[in-house]
Amino acid sequence: MVKKLSLLLFFALFAQVTSAQALLDWEDMIQGVTYTTPEGGAELGEFLTPTYKKKMLDLEGQEISITGYFLVLEGQKDSFMLSNNPMASCFFCGNGGPETIIELYFDSRPSFSMDDLISVKGTLKLNRDNPDHTYYTIEHANGFTIKM
Questions:
Q1: Which of 24, 50, 121, 126 could form a disulfide with 28 if both were Cys (CB 3.0 to 4.6 A apart)?
Q2: Can you give the pTM of this predicted structure?
Q3: Cβ contacts of 138 within 8 Å, gap of 6 or more
Q4: Residues of the signal sequence (predicted)?
């Protein structure tokens, strides 16, 4: 019996290691980056230079998973974001910083609706210098809706 349990535990751990993905929460994202303010201060909407913590640097290019609120940018209908907060209180409305949103790139168009609570997995990319994109990106994203 002990042999069977040991063998089962070994396979469970092996399966976890070989298909591991990092399960992140918003505190990881918030604590994972700091910003350098230009001399003389930053202007509203200015892209501050990010400095990523070791944990985020180690996860770049790796598969991660995180849960948040699905946002669709109004004018574009093909720009998708994941937010720590629903649209009414997300980063754009002043509740949080730019580290509380993640740009999403799906391999096929998702069917989620605005403010759906979803869990997303995909490849983490860090944006060090492009002001046209968010500080965090998930590429090859796929996910599912979480019913509450």
A1: 24
A2: 0.78
A3: 64, 66, 82, 102, 103, 104, 105, 120, 121, 122, 123, 124, 125
A4: 1-22
